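Re-run requested by the PI after the first attempt was lost when the workstation crashed. Everything re-entered from the original request form. Ligand of interest: heme C.
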Amino acid sequence: MGSPTLSRSELARAWRVGILAWMCAAPAAWAYDFLGAESCQSCHPDAWATWKASPHARAKDVLSPTQQRDARCLSCHSPNDVDQKQAGVTCETCHGGGQYYSPRYIMKDAELARLAGLVDPTEKACRACHDASSPSLRPFDFASRLKAMDHWSVERAKRKEQSSSRAPLPARGPSPTFGEYLEQRGSSLVRR
Ligand code: HEC
Ligand code: HEC
Ligand code: HEC
Ligand code: HEC
């Protein structure tokens, strides 16, 4: 009888397949639970501070008490008010519920984070609320409105600084990304 020992890389693989299996067992709609903007704050303090001072964070506050109970207004001003108990247009309204992607070991792996529900917000997502029926005098210009809510430039600059000041890594091939791993395995696990 051979003893069932696993190599480090086999363990790493089993771990990731385990995470996937665990996520696949989640409710089918891929609508994951929200953890709240404060849960993102600890790791994304700059993004959080910019958002907190923005109209999106205050979007519910501009409504009168009666309007705050009106589903027609909440659909844009606080779309996750009832289902997730989150006021305003929050991080997770745009980036998806953080239930599975927010642990650091998943966040650090860009592909795995997306498999775990992290969403890249698109122009189409903005237009779901910034449409002809919203009370803006100007038509929605994506490029300039995106710039007006920039909460990523500071983070990206800091990240760049950190990685360039880091000591050079020993010469060794990069560990495969999750996507490369799936390709190696020829897996159809995530193709739907
Ligand atoms: C435990 C720390 C931690 C928490 C909590 C966390 N993040 Fe992250 N996040 C990271 C790390 C680390 C990265 C990878 C980028 C980096 O190296 O700085 C990242 C990356 C991201 C990215 C960019 C992904 C990419 O590849 O472009 C987005 C968007 C993001 N996080 C959103 C969120 C949101 C929204 C929340 C709250 C629901 C959240 N994060 C909670 C640590 C965290
Ligand atoms: C289709 C999405 C949508 C719906 C539904 C909606 N709004 Fe808005 N609302 C917006 C957007 C987007 C803005 C910001 C417009 C801009 O400044 O470009 C806005 C702005 C406002 C403002 C101005 C806020 C400020 O800071 O000056 C008020 C007040 C407001 N809405 C009230 C309401 C009320 C009351 C209802 C329900 C009867 C409602 N809205 C329904 C999308 C919506
Ligand atoms: C109205 C939608 C919206 C809200 C609300 C929002 N974001 Fe974003 N976020 C975006 C978009 C769009 C981008 C990508 C911009 C780009 O790539 O040009 C982005 C980028 C980011 C990035 C940078 C990713 C990278 O590649 O470096 C992080 C981190 C992030 N958001 C975290 C947060 C956090 C944390 C919150 C809440 C405190 C939040 N976001 C709220 C839409 C939103
Ligand atoms: C769930 C609905 C929703 C989504 C999605 C959304 N917004 Fe908004 N946005 C609002 C509401 C509501 C306001 C008005 C808040 C207020 O003034 O109190 C607003 C205000 C703004 C403002 C400040 C007013 C202005 O026009 O200068 C900017 C900028 C903005 N949004 C950009 C974006 C961009 C870019 C995206 C997509 C990445 C986006 N929003 C996605 C609902 C949304």
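Saved to the shared folder this time. Residues 159 and 165 are 10 Å apart (CA to CA).
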